[in-house]
Every structure is written in structure tokens, then in C-alpha cells.
Write a structure and sequence with these properties.
mainly alpha, 2 strands, two-stranded antiparallel sheet, about 0% strand, about 325 residues, globular
């Protein structure tokens, strides 16, 4: 599974870590998406209780099958690309792919990883969010009403609740519907906001992890303890997700948009419209959920990744 500078085991370990993190983090991811792109929730607790009362525990796992199948591949690419990019940088800068990376090397590798990740991650996120948002109220401004009253005036509706109504039967139907109506570009709606989120976001993910691992590992030890990996990964995840929240709000809104009719023309239009309607605080909606959710997801991700690598490289 290895060559001198390229290793496949990083991809396999990333796949294992990704699967573990999805199961741990999806319930809070659903809450985060509803808070950012939905309506009618007073706060995080109210959102959680509303989902549970209306949809039971299964509501928190809505749309999980697609992330479980796809985010495992996504994390495989992210961790495999990041690790191999580090080795490539070390090879050309220091003449040895095993040479430890400096802070600048880590920054370049992590930002390149964030850029590459959007190609695979944007469609994954879009489908996940569309499936998570299916039980939301359909706002009247997003409805194209075929029937008007006799005198031609619009039906005066504020919002319409369509219980048990689903636009998509599942992830495959969601993908095919988007492709039929909007083409391949429809799957990449919100990709610009995702670049703004992930390029700096991955730098604030991998660098804090490396720093915390170094701080938590005694100088006498050659490798970090699993508890150190778990804590460093969790802290890195919380930091990354909290700082990425404003761009994540914009991304979520753009990807949840256009269920029936587009409301936002682009990233800048979404930012301006959201600010005018709800003020600056809207860009920090879901930040607390991101901080809480980021810890178990990332701690699980890094721990399973590192333990898998240790297993592969010792056998």
C-alpha cells in the first residue's frame, strides 16, 4: 500500500475515520442545518425539541445514508490528499518525504486540501442539506402558485405547511432531479461559499491538531497517546467549525435554496439579503452547535484515522 512518497493507507484510514465521524456527528449536523437555513426555531434547544416531537429520534438521522456512503469517500480523499501533499512538499523542500513539515508547509498543504475538497464535497453537502430540509415549512416566497383567485390577485399566504410531502424520495432521486432541472451546475450551488469556508477552514483544522498533538505529547514519546489524539482532534474541530460558521451559514442557505424557486442570485447576494433581513447575528447562527458537534466528530475522525494508520503500518 506504499511507494516512496505516496501512500494508499492514508486514504483507507481516512475512509474509516470518516464513517465513524458521520455516525457521531449527523444528529447535530441536522440541527445545525435547520437553524441556519430553516425557520421557526427560537434557539438550539427549541430546534432539538421540535425535531424530536414532530419527527421522533429518526428525524435527527434524516438524510444520513448519503453522507455515510459519500462522506467516507470525501474524508478518504481529504486525509489521503493532505498527508501525501505533506510528503510531496517535504520531498521537494528538504529532499526527504519523511522530514517533518513546518508551519508554512502545513498551511499550504491544508489550504490546497480545502480547495480540492470542494469538488467532491459540494454535491455531497447539497444533497444532504436538501434531504435534511424536507420537513421544513415551505415559504410562500419560494412557491410558484398555479392557482390564483378569480380577480387575479395572489393568494395571501404567509407560509404553507405540507405535511408528509417530499420533493425527493432519497439521495439518488434528489441528484437526478437536480441534474434534470439545473444540470451539473445545480449540484455545485453554494460551491463559492464552500471555498470561502474550507480553504481557511482546513488550515484551522489541521494546524491546531498538529499544535495540540505536539503540546500534549511528552518529549520522551515518539508518538501521541490515543487520548492526546482524541483531545487534539476535538479541539481542532471545534476551532475550525466555529471560525467557519459565517461562510457555512451562507453555504447552507444557498444549498437549501431553490427547492422550488431560487431566492439568492449568488454568494454576495445571499450575504447582503441575509444581513438586511436578520442582521449580522445571522452569520453566527448555529455557531454553538458547530462548536459542540465539531468536537466529537473531529475527535472520532482523527482517533480512528491515526489508529487505523498504526494498524496498517504495523502489519
Amino acid at each position: 500500500m506504499t511507494s516512496k512518497n505516496f501512500r494508499l493507507d492514508d486514504f483507507v484510514a481516512g475512509w474509516i475515520g470518516g464513517a465513524s465521524s458521520v455516525v457521531v456527528g449527523h444528529p447535530l449536523d441536522t440541527v445545525k442545518t435547520r437553524l441556519q437555513a430553516g425557520s421557526g426555531y427560537q434557539n438550539t434547544l427549541h430546534c432539538i425539541l421540535s425535531i424530536y416531537r414532530k419527527e421522533t429520534v429518526m428525524g435527527f438521522f434524516k438524510g444520513m445514508s448519503f453522507p455515510l456512503a459519500s462522506i467516507t469517500v470525501y474524508n478518504s480523499v481529504v486525509f489521503g490528499f493532505f498527508s501525501n501533499t505533506q510528503r510531496l512538499i517535504s520531498k521537494y523542500r528538504y529532499g526527504d518525504g519523511r522530514h517533518p513539515c513546518g508551519m508554512l508547509d502545513l498551511t499550504v498543504a491544508s489550504m490546497l486540501t480545502g480547495l480540492i475538497s470542494v469538488g467532491l464535497g459540494a454535491p455531497v453537502d447539497l444533497v444532504k442539506i436538501r434531504l435534511q430540509m424536507q420537513t421544513q415549512m415551505v415559504l410562500a416566497e419560494n412557491l410558484q402558485l398555479a392557482g390564483n383567485v378569480a380577480n387575479g390577485t395572489n393568494i395571501p399566504l404567509r407560509s404553507v405547511d405540507i405535511p408528509n410531502q417530499r420533493l425527493y424520495r432519497g439521495p439518488i432521486h434528489c441528484i437526478s432531479s437536480i441534474l434534470q432541472t439545473q444540470g451539473i451546475q445545480g449540484l455545485y450551488r453554494g460551491a463559492g461559499a464552500m471555498i470561502l469556508r474550507d480553504v481557511p477552514g482546513y488550515a484551522l483544522y489541521f494546524i491546531p491538531y498538529a499544535v495540540f498533538c505536539d503540546l500534549l505529547t511528552p518529549s520522551s514519546s515518539s508518538s501521541p497517546h490515543p487520548c492526546s489524539i482524541w483531545l487534539a482532534g476535538g479541539l481542532a474541530g471545534s476551532i475550525s467549525w466555529v471560525t467557519a460558521t459565517p461562510a457555512d451559514v451562507v453555504k447552507s442557505r444557498m444549498q437549501a435554496d431553490a427547492q422550488l424557486q431560487k431566492k439568492y442570485k449568488g454568494v454576495l447576494h445571499c450575504i447582503v439579503q441575509s444581513y438586511r433581513a436578520e442582521g449580522a447575528e445571522v452569520f453566527f447562527r448555529g455557531a454553538s452547535v458547530n462548536a459542540i458537534r465539531g468536537f466529537p466528530m473531529s475527535s472520532t475522525m482523527f482517533l480512528m484515522y491515526e489508529l487505523s494508520l498504526q494498524f496498517f503500518r504495523s502489519h
